[in-house]
Amino acid sequence: MQTPGFLSFSPRRLKVRFGWPDAALFAILAAAGVAIAAGVNDATEPLAQLRLEPVVLDAWQLPRYALLTTLRLFAALAASFVFTLVAATAAAKSRRAELVIIPALDILQSVPVLGFMTFTVTAFMGLFPGSRVGVECAAIFAIFTSQAWNMAFSLYQSLRQVPADLDEVARGFGLSPLRKLIRLELPFAAPGLVWNAMMSMSGGWFFVVASEAISVGHTQIMLPGIGSWLAIAIEQRNLSAVALAVGAMAVVILLYDQLVFRPVIAWADRFRVEQTASVAPPKSWLFDLFRRARLLPAFTAPLRAVGQMVCLLEPARRPIAQQRQFTSKAQKPAARGMRLWTVMVSLSALAATVYAIDFLHQTLSLGDAWAALRFGLITLLRVIVLIILASFVWVPIGVWVGLRPRWTSRIQPVAQFLAAFPANVLFPIAVVAIVHFHADPDVWLSPLMVLGTQWYILFNVIAGASAIPSDLREAAQMFGVTRWQWWRRLILPGIFPYYVTGALTASGGSWNASIVAEAVSWGSTRLRAQGLGSYIADATTAGDGARVLLGIMVMSVFVIAINRLLFRPLYRLSERRLRLS
Amino acid sequence: MITHTARPVVTLEHVSHSYGGEQGGPPILEDVALAVREGEIVGLLGRSGSGKSTLLRSIAGLVRPSSGELRFVPDAEGAPRSVSMVFQSFALFPWLTVLQNVELGLEAQRVPAEERRTRALAAIDLIGLDGFENAFPKELSGGMRQRVGLARALVVEPSLLLMDEPFSALDVLTAETLRTDLLDLWGEGKLGIASVLIVTHNIEEAVLMCDRILVLSSNPGRIAAEFTVDLPQPRDRLDPEFRELVEQIYARMTQRAVVPVALPGTQPEHGLDRPLPDVSINSLAGLIEEIEAAPFEGRAPLATLADTLQLEIDDLFPIVETLQMLQFVDIDDGDAVLTKRGAAFAQEDVDQRKANFRRTLETHVRLARHIRVVLDERPSHQAPARRFRDELEDHMSPDFAATTLRTVTEWGRYAELFAFDDDGDLFSLDDPA
């Protein structure tokens, strides 16, 4: 992708000499290049090599494992970008594609794709027999499935909200679709996309453990990486190895946050459409370094050249004014075609459903469906109770932080870090504690579900509280409202729209997390909480494809139903009544 | 001097447009014919809803009219015409520098990079933006931003420059400077364009800039009148001839707005099939007081009123028309004259005003009376707003119905004719205690 604003350097800057920022920049890029080359080299080894050099809990190997895991995460992120570009652009440009892609994304977003690992591994290994590449692809694909959907949604929504006047400028000048994408649509979508990519990266960590230690039939493949390290450490009940892995993750997250996401966020800030300079623009030392590097234009020249070549390939277009000279009595034949398309799509969806039910019917009975539904209700109860509990904890804290700007800027990065941290690595500790206290796993495994997702509530409440206008707060103070009035009349209505967003994300994430949180092991100790999550997890372990499918279908129905019946109406309420504008 | 024999740049005939496809919503434009000729600045003057922006966008190729003919006439050498547009909102790409923004149109035409830069720099220079080449739009003031918009439109060397209320988002002083600069460049022939078509709702601006002014009527948009401005440039706002023309245009623009005259012995009434404008009680009362007070003493020329109050016609006309509909004011040859009831209203205290307004609503606004009657008839004295919204939507678009209901709600609440509960979306006779 050509990155327009990034290349905005005046010709004058080119003349200046090489400075230390250039040296630093060069070093960083060279290190990144070496790391990628080493990773690719590693990943293309024959599969047999893994048996000779299995994953071992050797601290000296940990940096290599961390590197490989990080590369997998970024490879998945890159794949998500490509998918996002194709799917979201298609959906935004073609109504027919939209009709298929958007509902599909909506479902995929709420479906625990983790359950499908068994199927995808076999497929990818068939593509690259005997090589590690196949297994690597399967792992990357698993991570991809946790990253792509929200990014695609973000781009799709941005593409549909491109400001009308800018769109008219592009059309008026007759910008080709490609140029329009590069000059207008992608830049406009950039801030949202970057934010969602960050969220996706955090989500991806959750799947690392599950995706690196893969069982195919009766053989288990352990790809070198932090995930496999953790799996082994848990199996061997090696607490210090778990701690090491946690430490390594913290370091990796900190590094890519500083080296990748901070600079990208600082850079993407220029794509915000507000015409005023932002109050506190995001800062990044690396981005500042980049900007000071005088050789940067030289580094980005190949990128630009590619962009220009692509633009040269497209057919010449003449500006609109000359093209058109019409006498029109326009009729639209498109409507009937669209209706036909809708019918076709609905029929295919119906056929797929019938096929799936038929497949389930061959192996399962109606009793299984009822069982899955019952487990679903149990998990639903857990999700609801936990979201309420988490709200009671985080809403007051979030409000306290949000109303104090100094604290907000300090806490926000910490909260982001915590959200990026894969909560599932802490599960073993919970197992140890539950076993030690002889606690009931049905109750005490539940909190693990919100361990990773509660942060969304905190983020959003902080954002909401800091958006409450200070004049309203001053007015409340002047009239000497009571504590309860202050909450009921000012704070709760003020943060409500933000809270709904946070709670929606947290609840969706918790459903997904239930698959790993309701069935946890520590060495040979296995704890289970009854629920849909453990139902799917058990079926996956047993290789019972039908039950996996049934469980996933039931879970999707639950998630979609909650979104439609609970969160959509709440959104509408907050739009109508509680918008501060 | 421009004559009607000058070569046309673009001609439109029988152009009609309505949104909403085949069935078609209410027409936006109806049977519009116009020609823009070489060497002239043409003004399209109209209120919001007159379709003037749609007309401009049809010429720009951004909107495809439902029917009609639009023809660009090649110039004397047979070269094809081209257009470009300046936007009210400036429409600058925030992530591109001034230079990159200006280069955008050339880039689309695949002009080589070298030439692109030269031409863009020349346009930036011409329009007075030197030194800002590498600034981002958010670093610029509104006036500078619109200069970028102008440079971007001029750099592609269009035959026809289309301007969509280019100065209305700017403060008065900045707008004046920009207008003058543009007229100077035009007068010196430095713009390199054949003609300009400018959409505005500011009558003075139109008289100040244009050689010809086309007045568009509203709902649907039609060309209602044409004025030729022969005053030499630069024009002086205080020149009596200038004032005379401005007042003529005001008179012409309010003329069509007269409520259909009632038959003797009946009350003229605002029916259910016509939308109410979004006009608040405070604006109504404020304007009545203004007309009643010195220097107008009950009779105010609209042009002077707009000037004194610094109101654009889009703000002033809806208030005046509403006052006229409620019979607080009569319109007489471009003057607003207070009626007896209007003069009384100006003198009354709060409670008397409410009573006066209540009587007015009951006699002149069918919808208000209708709601009251329904509430009186029902034993519960309650009625869902949905019901009235549906009735309105039989006659108008949902947007207009929503505005109409909002307006009648505010008026009814003020007059204490009925109460409204937003949560329940319910009209009632309850007096909130």
UniProtKB/TrEMBL annotation, chain A:
What InterPro entries does this protein's entry cite?
Answer: MetI-like (IPR000515), MetI-like_sf (IPR035906)
Show the stretches that span the lipid bilayer: 66-92, 104-127, 213-232, 239-256, 337-357, 377-403, 415-437, 443-469, 490-511, 548-567
- Under the cellular component aspect of Gene Ontology, which terms does the record hold? plasma membrane
Q: Keywords in UniProt for this one?
A: Membrane, Transmembrane, Transmembrane helix, Transport
> What membrane topology does the UniProt entry give?
Multi-pass membrane protein
PROSITE patterns attached here? ABC_TM1
Residue ranges annotated for the ABC transmembrane type-1 domain, each copy included: 66-261, 380-566
**Predominant location:** membrane
Task: Respond yes or no to whether keyword Plastid is given for this record.
Answer: no
Q: Name one GO biological process term.
A: transmembrane transport
What PANTHER family does the database record attribute to this sequence?
BINDING-PROTEIN-DEPENDENT TRANSPORT SYSTEMS INNER MEMBRANE COMPONENT
Member of which family? Belongs to the binding-protein-dependent transport system permease family.
- The protein here is known as ABC transporter permease subunit
Where does this protein come from, organism-wise? Sphingomonas glacialis
Automatic annotation (TrEMBL), chain B:
- ABC transporter domain: residues covered: 10-243
Instruction: List, alphabetically, the InterPro entries matched.
Output: AAA+_ATPase (IPR003593), AAA-associated_dom_C (IPR018632), ABC_transporter-like_ATP-bd (IPR003439), ABC_transporter-like_CS (IPR017871), ABC_transporter_ATP-bind (IPR050166), P-loop_NTPase (IPR027417)
Q: What is this protein called?
A: ATP-binding cassette domain-containing protein
Q: Which UniProt keywords apply?
A: ATP-binding, Nucleotide-binding, Transport
Give the family from UniProt.
Belongs to the ABC transporter superfamily.
Listed GO molecular functions? ATP binding; ATP hydrolysis activity
PROSITE patterns, A to Z: ABC_TRANSPORTER_1 (PS00211), ABC_TRANSPORTER_2 (PS50893)
